[in-house]
Amino acid sequence: MVLMEILKETLAANKGYRRDEWTMFGNEAEKVELDVIRNQRVLRKRVDTMALRKQAQNKASAHLRYLERLSQRAPDFAVPLRAHTVWEGMTVTLSCIVQGCPPPKVTW
Question: Looking at the Swiss-Prot or TrEMBL record, what is one Pfam family this protein matches (predicted)?
Answer without folding.
Answer: I-set
